[in-house]
Amino acid sequence: MGAVQSFAQTSGTIEGFQEKKTASIGVLAYRGNETALSQWQPFANFLSENIDGWTFELVPVTLTTVKREIDTKKIQFLITNPGHYVTLAAQYDLSALATRERRVKNSGVRLSKFGTVIFVAKDSAIASLNDLKGKKIAAVSPDAFGGFQIAWSEMQKQGVDAFRDLASLRFLGFPQDQIIAAVAEKKVDAGIIRSGLLETLAEEGKVRLEDFRVLNAQASDGFPYEVSSAMFSEWPFASLASVDKRLREQVLITLLMSQDPAIASKYDLLDLWSAPLSYENTRKLIGDFRERLALTNNADTSTLFSLTTIAAFLALIGMSILSAFIYYRQKPLLPEPVPDAQMASLSSEFLEYLEKLKSLTSRERQILGLICMGHQTKSIADKLGISPKTVEFHRTNLLQKTDAGTTAHLVQIATRLGYDQEVSLGQ
C-alpha cells in the first residue's frame, strides 16, 4: 500500500486487483529529452509508489510543444520554469501545487530561488552589460524565462534594449548546453542561460568554469552559483483544472513528503517540494516583457501590436545579415546536408521538419536565416529590396509550410537542422 490512500476507484479489475490509472507529468526538457527523463524518473517512481491506484509517467516538453500536449489532454501536471508557468496560466487554468527546492549535491543546501547568467569567454573584452551593445548574443528563446527574459530585464535596467541595441540576438532553443558551446567557439560574444548550469556541466566534466566569466555578478546569501540577476521563485509543480480534486490533494500530500530526509534518500530525489512560493515578481516581469514586445519595431512610429500578435512580432525581430551575404555572393542560399551521424540521431518529428524545410524557396530560406539571426524587418526589407509586407508574407508562409506553430519553435527547428545563419551559400 502507498503512503497516501487513494480515493479513486477504477472501472476495471484484473483477477481481483484494481487496474491502475496513468497520470502524465510534462517536464520542461531544457537540456534535452534524454536528460529530462533521466533526471525526473526517480520522482515519477516516488509518486507512483506512494499514491495508490496511479502510475505517473513523464512527458518531456519544450516551451512550444507543451501547448499541444495540454490541448490534446496528454498531460495532467506540469513542471516548468516560473515564467512559462505564468504565461500558460493566463491561457489555461493552471494552479501551482508546490515549489521546487533544488538540492545541491554533496551539501545540505536547498535552493528555492534561481536567476539567470549572462556570460562571456574569459578572454572577452566585454566587461559589463552596457558593453553588450553591438554584440552577438545567444539565448534559448523569446519565451524562455531563465534563458532570456530575466536577462532582458537586467539589460533594460542598465539601458540596453536586447531587441534594439545588439548586433544580433540568436535563439538556439534547447538544450542550453549549445549556448555555452556557441560562446566557447566564439560564434557569439555572450550567452544567456539559467543559473547553476555552468557549474553542473563543470561537475560533469563537460566545461571548465575558468574558460568563462559571468557579467553583472550578483551576491546572494546562501546561493552557491554565480548569477547575473535578481532571484525568482523556483519551478512550480502545476496541475490543470481538469485533474480530479482528490488526485490533486493526493499529489500535494505526497510532494510534501519529499521533505522527509529518509524518503528523499530512499527514492534518490534530486529535488524536494515545499508549499508554493509567490510568483508575483515573475508575473510583473512577464507583464513588462509583453509590453516591450507589443511595441512596433518601426522606430518612426509608436504603434502597438495587439498581445495576440506577439508571436508575429517575434517573427519580425530580425532579418538582415544573410542578405549581406547574398549581396556580395549573389548565390542562392542552400543549407549544408545534415551529416549521416546527425540524421541517425534525429527524431521522426525532426525528420518530418527536415523534409518540409527542403521544400522552401530560396527567398524563404533567406528570410528564415535572417529570423534565426534576430534582425529587424525593416532592415531585411531594405537589404533585399522588398517591402515589409512582403517580408511578413514570407514569414507567414514559413510558419504554415513548416507547421512550426510559433517563431520560437521555427528557430529551434532551423537551428537544429542547419537552416540558420550558419548555412552554406552553395558552390
- Sheet/helix structural class: alpha/beta
Shape descriptor reads globular
Oligomer status: single chain
> How many strands in all?
16
How many individual domains? Answer: 3
The CA-CA distance between the termini, in Å, is 67 Å
Superfamily (CATH H level) name of the largest domain: Periplasmic binding protein-like II
- Radius of gyration, taken over Cα atoms and rounded to an integer in Å: 23 Å
Q: Give the count of helical stretches.
A: 17
Q: What is the share of helical residues?
A: 25-40%
CATH class of the largest domain: Alpha Beta
Unreliable stretches covering 5 or more consecutive residues: 3-16, 296-337, 422-427
Under CATH, the topology of the largest domain is which?
D-Maltodextrin-Binding Protein, domain 2
In percent terms, what proportion of residues is strand?
15-25%
Largest β-sheet summary: 7 strands, mixed
Overall CATH architecture of the largest domain: 3-Layer(aba) Sandwich
Mean pLDDT: 81
Outline the secondary-structure elements.
Elements: E1 13-14, E2 17-18, E3 21-28, H1 33-50, E4 54-61, H2 66-71, E5 77-79, H3 82-89, E6 94-103, E7 110-111, E8 113-114, E9 116-121, E10 136-139, H4 145-157, E11 168-171, H5 177-184, E12 190-194, H6 197-203, E13 212-214, E14 232-233, E15 236-240, H7 245-257, H8 261-266, E16 271-274, H9 280-293, H10 310-315, H11 321-329, H12 340-345, H13 348-358, H14 362-373, H15 377-384, H16 388-402, H17 407-416
Parallel strand pairs: 3-4, 3-5, 10-11, 10-12
Antiparallel strand pairs: 1-2, 5-15, 6-7, 6-15, 6-16, 8-14, 9-12, 9-13
Helix pairs in contact: 3-9, 4-9, 14-16, 14-17, 15-16
